[in-house]
Design brief:
Number of helices: 14
Structural class: mainly alpha
CATH architecture of the largest domain: Orthogonal Bundle
Shape: elongated
Order of helices and strands: HHHHHHHHHHHHHH
Helix content: 55-70%
Oligomer: single chain
CATH superfamily of the largest domain: Phycobilisome linker domain
CATH topology of the largest domain: serine acetyltransferase, domain 1
């Protein structure tokens, strides 16, 4: 059984014909998907207005998701302590149901985040073609079925994200970076693989992908990423990156 099978949930759709019990079940699933838990009592007070509107059929799933994503409850949990790329990866997991597909997609949403702000970036995800295609206005986001993924790599990275408790691998390095580098980032610190002179260097395409992803990170994010590595690990990373420009 894959992680996607393990974490798959029954598709929950809420329309104006849905009962109060159905809306309550949908609310529970939204929190499980987006917050990865149910809100604490003090958080629920902050979300009370939108909860009531959702349960009384005044707003739908997509509107509630936007309000939740824009809330201090969500931002405190995932945004303020994260690098931009890691936060975007988490937003994809929560609102789109998969990992970012490639460095280009990551770079696009990094640009939206830096130029227009965090709320605009979350809104852009909810207005994206992928969100509309898979969830429309009424379905609670969930992991995609295997055949819908844009590539095997995205499927693999989504599986890893679904298994990852948030913060387990820290708040700086997104999956696509430690995957390309074969990093071990459990516990929030990262270890690079041993590279000896006798070993075959990493394939150019893999190194190019790594270089593209790192280029989406701002100076502060790169500094935070570097801080998770020892001096020896930074030397290894420098050696790998040198291969992309040699």
């Amino acid at each position: 059984m894959t992680a996607i099978d393990e974490f798959a949930v029954k598709e929950i759709t809420v329309s104006r014909q849905s009962s109060g019990e159905e809306r309550q079940a949908a609310l529970y699933q939204i929190y499980a998907q987006v917050l990865e838990r149910q809100p604490y009592r003090f958080e629920r007070k902050k979300l009370a207005k939108f909860e009531v509107e959702f349960l009384r059929n005044k707003i739908g799933v997509k509107r509630f998701l936007r309000e939740l994503g824009h809330s201090e409850v969500y931002l405190n949990e995932f945004y303020y302590n994260s690098s931009n790329p890691k936060f975007i990866e988490l937003c994809f997991k929560h609102f789109i149901g998969r990992a970012p597909s490639d460095a280009e997609e990551m770079r696009y949403y990094c640009d939206v985040l830096m130029r227009r702000g965090v709320k605009a970036m979350i809104t852009a995800l909810l207005d994206s073609e992928d969100y509309i295609k898979h969830f429309g206005c009424f379905t609670v986001p969930h992991a995609w079925t295997e055949e819908n993924y844009p590539s095997p790599k995205t499927f693999w990275e989504t599986e890893v994200l679904l298994r990852e408790l948030h913060g387990q691998r820290g708040w700086i390095v997104p999956t696509m970076i430690w995957h390309d580098l074969h990093l071990d980032c459990n516990g929030g610190s990262c270890s690079l693989p041993e590279v000896s002179s006798k070993e075959r260097p990493a394939p150019p395409a893999e190194l190019d992908a790594l270089h593209q992803v790192l280029s989406t990170m701002g100076a502060q994010d790169l500094e935070q990423f570097a801080s998770t590595l020892s001096a020896a690990e930074r030397d290894k990373l420098r050696h790998l990156l040198m291969q992309t420009v040699s």
